[in-house]
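Hi V.,

You were right to ask for the full record rather than a summary. Here it is.
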Amino acid sequence: MVALVVILFPPLLIAFLLVMERVEEPLRRPTSQREVADFVDTASVGEVETLTNSGVGRAMGRWRQRRRVKRATPPLV
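Predicted structure:
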């Protein structure tokens, strides 16, 4: 049992670190002035509430996610 833990721990730790790097990458990216201006112009009420409650990072993430979904779905005619 100990041998199994010794063998599996390093690969699992490396896998965890790689996943966390992908999670942290968008958080490290600075917000540009253009994105902030677009956010102010197009933010929904929920996104403004997120800004006031959770800060700029989470509000911008929610706004970016909404824009990605909007771009990915074609308009219904």
